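user: can you give me the structure for this one chain? tokens are fine.
assistant: on it. calling the predictor now.
[tool input]
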Amino acid sequence: MNLRADVIVLGAGMVGVGVALNLQKRGRDVVLIDRRGAGEETSFGNAGLIQREAVIPYTFPREFGTILSYAMNNRRDAVYHLSALPRVAPWLFRYWRESAPERIARSADALAPLMAECVKEHDALIAEAGGKAASLVYQKGWLKCLRSEESMRDAIAEAKLLGEYGVDYAVLTGAEVRKLEPHVSDAVIGAIHFRGSPTSADPGALTKTYAELFVQRGGRFLKGDARRLSQEASGWRVALESGPIEARDVVVALGPWSDDVFRPLGYDIPFAVKRGYHMHYAGKGNATLGHSLHDAHGGFALVPMSKGIRLTTGVEFADRDAPPTPVQLARAEPFARALFPLGERLDEKPWMGRRPCLPDMVPVIGRAERHRGLWFAFGHAHHGFTLGPVTGRLLAEMMTGQTPFTDPSRYSAERFRH
């Protein structure tokens, strides 16, 4: 006899878990399916920031000199595999086109209502999950560190724009930075302190804690391969080793693997993957780090985690499943050591993750156009961890007939047809 549910959610990263919990809250019988445990892919290795300030998306450079420097492929913030360029070049062109000022403004307007609610939605789940979840999150905000007067002026101008979206920030001098973080290098002349953005000391563990809450409330979490999804007369079926499960609705929340499902179903969505790496370090001597630091010049972040100080890299454009090539980590580490006194490496090898991206850096959230009962929740780029719970709320409101808290049309996959 086949198992049945109201909804199957494919993918147990932060987005999938957020969707499952929000549908469950609204009375739906939900099955969450992943080939691994919760939070063991992209949600495991990010910087752990719940980025209330991330209204303006990361953009493709517009200046010729900057583009030329990227083409030389010797930067720290972005690198590419030459072998992947024929496949990724059309997407990069669309990314460049969507980075025009008027289009960035449109993307920011789409992201703003999600970012405005992201901390509140995480806070609600943290409160519901109890002390374990609360112990994994600290409320100090993060520091965008600047090394030149020009970069400081640009950062202040951007922060003022973000202030119009309700972002809480403070402009710090170098001395004020070192009052908060005494071991930060004198090369940092100032920083923007984004005070309203919490950080998780273990984002993978926080995702697992949310998934445990889902199971405690009666949800089912099953291991399975999302590529074994098929449409049936009564809805959707996923063939599992333990037997098939069927549901009227299915949500594709597979992060960088989402195209393994939507492309065979005939959806031509401009989807790409930005890869990235992390490594943990001890502090050198008596050095301790209390805030997340982003080096705007170096293209990396240092984040205090349960396991140590996590160095996260920028972007690598490569085939999703190509072998790891952590050249960015090797390039960033000397700059990170100059910014903050790092000790020995604590991981046997670098961790590699994949960020699922659309060219406008806005996720796809909503109903699939051509299949009844098929829903999408993917493409969150650098902010899946930030936006998982609020994405879950928005999609659950749409799926259960409630009034969505913001206009969902701006997140439709159909926007790429225009």
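assistant: here you go. The domain at 64-101+131-198+271-357 is CATH 3.30.9.10 (D-Amino Acid Oxidase; Chain A, domain 2). The chain has a mean pLDDT of 96.
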